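name: query_chain
kind: protein
chains: 1
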Amino acid sequence: QVQLVESGGGLVQPGGSLRLSCAASASVFSGYTMRWFRQAPGKEREFVASITWNGNSANYANSAKGRFTISRDNAKNTVYLHMNSLKPEDTAVYYCNQVKYWGQGTQVTVSS
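structure:
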């Protein structure tokens, strides 16, 4: 069964940090590039970051560069998104993605 399960979202103050996790079934994780997307209310879903299957290369949206770090633990079939210096405009539902598979999302709210 294909599964992508995100966790780690929540309410955080501006300037704070969160670490999102996405636990995947092995069939959709091993050997694949993994991506994070986000969707804010009233906006289209947008790319945030990606990491290659071996973790050797990562790409980021301009909005994430310098603040977010994507990583993966292939032994745990898990991809992470470390988010620092969070801003109110980072408020969104964050989704884990592998090609055609999506998780259910985890809500991140940045507010004082």
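note: DSSP finds one helix and eleven strands in the chain.
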